[in-house]
Amino acid sequence: MIRLTIQLYIARKFLTGILGTFVLCSVLIFMIDFVELLRQSGKYGAVPAWRLAWLALLRLPAYSEFLIGFAMLSGSIAALLLLARKSELAVMRAGGMSVWQFLSPGLAVAFIIGVGAVVAFNPLAAAGRTKAERLFADAFGRDANVLAAQSGGSWLRQDGVDGQSVIGAVAASNRGLKLTGVAAYVFHPSGTFVERIDAASAELKEGYWQISDAWVVRLGQEPERFETYLLSTYLTPERVQDALGSVFSVSFFELPGLIEVAEKAKLSTDRLRVQYEALLSRPLLCVVMVLLAATVSLRSFRSGGIQTMVITGMVGGFGFFLFAEVSRQVGVAGLAPAWVATWLPIVLVGLVSVTVLLHQEDG
Question: Could you give the strand order of the β-sheet that contains 208-218, starting from the edge strand earlier in sequence?
Answer without folding.
Answer: 154-160, 163-173, 178-187, 193-205, 208-218, 224-232
